[in-house]
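Figure 3 (text version): structure tokens given as input.
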């Protein structure tokens, strides 16, 4: 394996980098514990064949910022098992259990699910070492994708930011890119606030209806895996046209870097809530800021999932999850906007500054 180290190390972290190898089980994995000033580090276990140390370092820093922004008593970490997530269930179990045994002594790291792993994998980890978040319901888990924890937080963020963007959420029009765990729940919860879904896409195509798409019917339509384009209540359009939809709020909830300097000028919305991770390039965020389009960055708006995992890890209930998400994401969205305005910063810069100030304060309470 080639290890590509890029820009690693500042006064925040990483605190620990581990390379795990167990040839008999075919395991190669990386663990990066970025910062533990706020508490033990919580972060997902990704399984993919092409994971690099650079990627795991960046993701672990993102978790440090996200957990601190959400005011959780947890630091940030991430790990990556270098393997094909489509391997057999037996092979996956062997890899995950071996991985878990090798991090048994790393008690400051609490693993959770991420791309390529799920609740079943976390049950294997818990069985091996007694600690994991994102467990099946029967083991005290709160299924975050089923309850729509992240999508709910995205809706809370949209509601909190609307007036600053000059929008009244009731009656506003919104578009969602990606109709998976984050996108469909964001649509459902924003719809409940009285907003009208006018366009939506998935990996196969896009549809629109300026009079409003029936969100519940669309969710039902997608249940058996049907693409949004075959939904009878909308007119098909080219996926690239979604950016230019006539709407007030635009929600990326699919892939990274979908808003770039090449398409961001088409955006008509006044508010962009980052449901997906890093959906806009740095330049695109600057261009939007110049045009007065308000952006709420990913690690503020999409923290619902990790807040859910933290509540679960502390033995909390489903109703506590929604209350905690509501409170934390509303407060953080408003604080980000206030700092951004006061200090004339991009919302992302303001949010990073807010997180770093919390982490640095927490670091002053820790021994070396
Ligand atoms: P998912 O796999 O459940 O859904 C992804 C959706 O995006 C699917 O509908 C898919 O068809 C669609 N899609 C894929 N490529 C697309 C494209 N090019 N154009 C339009 N649609 C496309 O994934 P998810 O859990 O909803 O995650 C979406 C994003 O949110 C990812 O960036 C993920 O890292 C981030 N995120 C997820 C959570 C969570 O709790 N699930 C938490 C934080 C961040």
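Below: residues designed for each position.
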């Amino acid at each position: 394996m080639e290890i590509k180290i890029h820009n690693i190390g500042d006064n925040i972290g990483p605190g620990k980098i581990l390379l795990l190898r167990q040839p008999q089980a075919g395991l190669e994995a990386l663990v990066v514990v970025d910062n533990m000033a706020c508490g033990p580090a919580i972060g997902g276990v990704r399984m993919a064949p092409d994971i690099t140390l650079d990627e795991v370092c960046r993701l672990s820093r993102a978790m440090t910022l996200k957990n601190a922004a959400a005011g959780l008593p947890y630091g940030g970490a991430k790990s990556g098992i270098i393997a094909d997530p489509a391997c057999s269930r037996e092979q996956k179990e062997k890899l995950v259990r071996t991985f878990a045994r090798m991090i048994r002594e790393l008690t400051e790291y609490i693993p959770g699910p991420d791309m390529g792993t799920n609740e079943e994998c976390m049950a294997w980890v818990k069985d091996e070492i007694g600690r994991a978040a994102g467990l099946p319901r029967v083991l005290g888990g709160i299924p975050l994708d089923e309850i729509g924890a992240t999508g709910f937080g995205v809706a809370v963020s949209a509601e909190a930011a609307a007036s600053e963007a000059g929008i009244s959420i009731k009656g506003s029009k919104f578009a969602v890119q990606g109709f998976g765990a984050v996108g469909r729940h964001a649509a459902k919860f924003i719809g409940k606030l009285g907003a009208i879904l006018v366009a939506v896409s998935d990996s196969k195509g896009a549809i629109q209806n300026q009079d409003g798409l029936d969100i519940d019917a669309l969710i039902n339509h997608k249940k058996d895996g049907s693409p949004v384009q075959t939904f009878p209540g909308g007119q098909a359009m080219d996926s690239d046209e979604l950016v230019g939809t006539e709407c007030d709020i635009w929600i990326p909830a699919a892939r990274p870097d979908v808003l770039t300097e090449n398409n961001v000028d088409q955006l008509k919305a006044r508010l962009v809530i980052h449901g997906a991770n890093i959906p806009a390039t740095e330049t695109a965020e600057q261009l939007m800021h110049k045009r007065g389009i308000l952006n709420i960055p990913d690690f503020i708006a999409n923290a619902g999932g990790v807040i859910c995992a933290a509540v679960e890890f502390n033995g909390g209930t489903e109703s506590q999850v929604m209350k905690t998400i509501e409170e934390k994401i509303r407060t953080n969205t408003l604080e980000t906007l206030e700092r951004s305005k006061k200090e004339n910063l991009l919302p992302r810069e303001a949010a990073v500054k807010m997180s770093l100030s919390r982490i640095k304060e927490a670091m002053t309470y820790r021994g070396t």
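Residues 144-145, 150, 177-183, 201-203, 239, 253-255, 275-277, 302, 305 surround nicotinamide-adenine-dinucleotide (CB under 6 Å).
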